[in-house]
Amino acid sequence: MSEMVDVAVVGSGHNALVAACYVARAGRSVEVFERDTVIGGAVSTVERFPGHRVDRGSSAHIMIRHTGIIEELELADHGLRYLDCDPWAFAPAPPNSNAPGIVFHRSIDATCRSIEAACGAAEADAYRRFVNVWGPRSTRVMRAFSKPPTGPALVSSFWGLDADGGGIDLSRQFLASGDALLDEFFDDERLKAALAWFGAQSGPPMSEPGTAPMVGFAALMHTIPPGRAVGGSGALTTALASRLESDGGRTSPGDAVTSLRRSGDHWVTRTESGREVRSRSVIAGCHVLTTLDLLERGGFDTDVLARWRRRIRVGPGIGMVVRLATDALPHYPSADTVDGDAAVTNGLQLLVSDRNHLRLAHGSALAGELPPRPAVLGMSFSGLDPTISPPGEHQVTLWSQWQPYRLAGDESWSGLAEREADRIVNEMEALAPGFTDSVRARHVQSPRNLEEEMGLIGGNVMHVEMSLDQMMMWRPIPELSGHRVPGANGLYLTGASTHPGGGVSGASGRSAARIALGDNSRARVRTMFHRRPKT
Questions:
Q1: What crossing angle do the helices spanning 121-145 and 108-119 adopt, rounded to 10°?
Q2: Which end of the chain has fewer CB within 10 Å, C or N?
Q3: CA-CA distance, 115 to 187, in Å (whole number)?
Q4: pTM score, whole prediction
Q5: In the predicted model, is pLDDT for residue 535 greater than 70?
């Protein structure tokens, strides 16, 4: 006999759990199915080395702190606590340079003082203008991200935003490339490279049209900086799971969904253990291509699915990660004259000083080649949160972007991952001499590993490319952009495959839940009306 819940949720990534929490708080019964034995997907933390709590995916949480979701779901009551990354970023000077590094503080004044010392007074003034212009714009972008990607929602999000030159010039600036925006404001290449590398964390190179807002998002870090969840990135999804349980929901880890099938006015979710769970609605938080596979196994139109798959672009792969256990934090000589190592290692360490470094890495990935030099982002949050490492030890994460998923020729990641990890560590060594000697253990996540462990198809942590044609009302394709699936009444999409895309925001989960609850309420009203006895 089939089991029954109001809503079945596929996957336990943070967006799926956010959706489940809003559904449960509305009084609906909900169950979350997860193939992995670890809840949280790419927002989870495990013990990789003895005594070290190491993130599997994301580490710094930026967008969710701007959405209000943490407060709406009262996650602090379920153990979630954030520490501000302040400074939120540091760009060390190139090797053999006597220049100081650039420190990005939460305080705009402190940031401008650092930029003046490193790049000159004119660049500091330009940065202040940049923040004044793009701070309000980025606030509106976050407002748009927090709503479904409909025309009225987008218009209301940006309505009244003034710009020199009027609305036409404003739209031009939003559609510009990140590089064009940086060239418009700044002259110093080091400063432009640091901001380009921050913007590129969304995936696309800053040479692509529509990437200007990704660079402009840096201005919002002076309002609320990136946050580090105490205990690791997985503290967020642990709090969400606790919130869900307190409202009567449940999670079922280690039981993968094998098919989704529409049967009459219900969905049947079949799992690997043989369970068949009937529900009025399903919210799929896994990769959109995985969802389409589940629908195909449930008898959905294969021709329609094939057309959708062909138009969804995953891309060549975004990057790889090296997780390190060390006995010291990185020491940057170019930090000695600014705020000292303890401060600059609290946030994102932008280990790129020239945009050509980024361009060559991205171009190589498109050709299936390894980058001439890895483009590396460093994070060492054990200095900020000592709970994630044993006493006297530290933890450093090195993210190398635009490492291709598919390698040209006969190369494979199984034979290259460790050697490429050496090159990534050497990028840190060049800017923080002596770092290599501090490494005690490491765990390497190649693009293939990211796919195998967390279902990130193609090794893309954003699910599908975050290029202009796959954002907003086009993400992942127009037919699937409204969190609904045409021809699959009661099936809703959430996760990085949907608006607003990758990164830790939770906004997609909240939007999907609200749409599902709204549709369900309207359906119940219609049912009551049609069944009302005649008088």
A1: 140
A2: C
A3: 12
A4: 0.94
A5: no
